[in-house]
Amino acid sequence: MRLRAHQNKLKIEHSILGGLRPVLERLVENEDIRAVIPGVIRPVRDARGAVRIRVTVPVQNGWKAIALAAGARQELFISTPLGQADLEKRIEAALRG
Question: Which of 42, 45, 32 is nearest to 74 (CA)?
Fold first, then answer.
């Protein structure tokens, strides 16, 4: 299995929700994003429609976020020095394409 992809910033160790990978690849193009590590996928009822990403809590080297799509949620660990507001702007830009 290929563990690293796209400039060695997107670490793939688990499956990725449908439609989320292109968004993450656009997100890691920012030089302020050191790495994105997708985590566990769990089914949820409120994850219909387009991919959504919500920044939730700070972690040791960045932020934890939750991606919602295709009837499931996936944890994302984003390594970055950015504050929450700046990261959310970059995520919105990546979601727009």
Answer: 42
